[in-house]
Amino acid sequence: MMKKFENVDVIDTLRKIMLHNTRYYQTDFEYDIRTLADAAESNSWTRPFLWMSRESGTWCFPERDVYIKSTHPYNSWQSYRNDQGVKAYWVIFDKQSEDHKVTGTICELDYPKHADQAQKSAVQPNRVELVFKRPAAVRVYDFEDYDKNWYAIHRENGDIYNRSFLVENEAALQNQIADIRNACFQEAEPVGVDEYVSEMVRQHFCSRGYTVGDMTYVIPDDVFEAVRRGIPAYALYHDNRKELIPSVKEADRLNMHETLFGIRLEDKKLLDYLVKRPSMKGELFSGEELLLLDSILLHTGKTDALNERGRETLDRMIQKLDLVVSPTGNEANEMERSLNHEAESDELER
Questions:
Q1: Fewest C-beta in 10 Å: which of 155, 253, 272, 322?
Q2: Residue 337 has pLDDT above 50, yes or no
Q3: What is the arithmetic mean of pLDDT over 163-185?
Q4: At what angle do helices 248-256 and 220-229 cross, to 10 degrees?
């Protein structure tokens, strides 16, 4: 059963999904943010969007455009049927708060099924409406004429502010889209996004043969960042074996072989804090660690104030503080580990 997220921060929810599903070109999401934010600011609440996260990037289109043949949104939405790991969603705005946070409902799609539905329901445009910037003007062209002569039209009239593909029966198209959308939302089960992401990661790891459940998803760029900062990151294998990544060079080599990467959840939270990731930045210390800080202050000067678990927690806190105070202080250590790793490899080859 497909899932849906109700009354959520739209940008934050989509970002969480993207960070755990899109391995490369995560910067695509910045364009999606701008698209959604512009729509929210213009009060286009009645215009839902379709959003896709895939291994190499994201797409965000107004839903209507995905149902217009011979357009970039239609062609793009139809292009990934054979790709694994494509996650697609319907996005509907509810409101925008005073702090510009956009809330709404996001519904998961069965992407191959929806691509088929869109293909069967899509219509051919018959005209194109262009709004030019300078001089400000609106012109409507026959679609075939525009399709054949678009370069000359652009050169003659200058930059385009907006382009709309018009169809013969707009009402019929809107009704068909609404039927598909309503069925999707009615059939979906409400769920929390964190629960959904955790299950998504679990399924992804299991599909690659790693079933231990002690790691969370991490993309290559974050692996490089973690290794540079001295935060443990691992290469995961189908026999539930994991190996600590000793250097950025080794991480790059593993990435070229599309190795599955993982990082412990507490270390991922620390990494998010250190790189100041928008909306993912958590608190540096957990509740347990804050209680320990309070205990240390109360017992200052006393011996044997901490038990073994307390000392382990304190060591972890000191490591966190070291990373915050000297965020690049581990580069020398990382280089030393890399050199040692290469020396060991050379010794084995001999």
A1: 155
A2: no
A3: 95
A4: 160
Please state, rounded to an integer, the average pLDDT across all residues of the chain: 85
User: What one-letter code names the amino acid at 142?
Assistant: D
Residue 289 identity: E
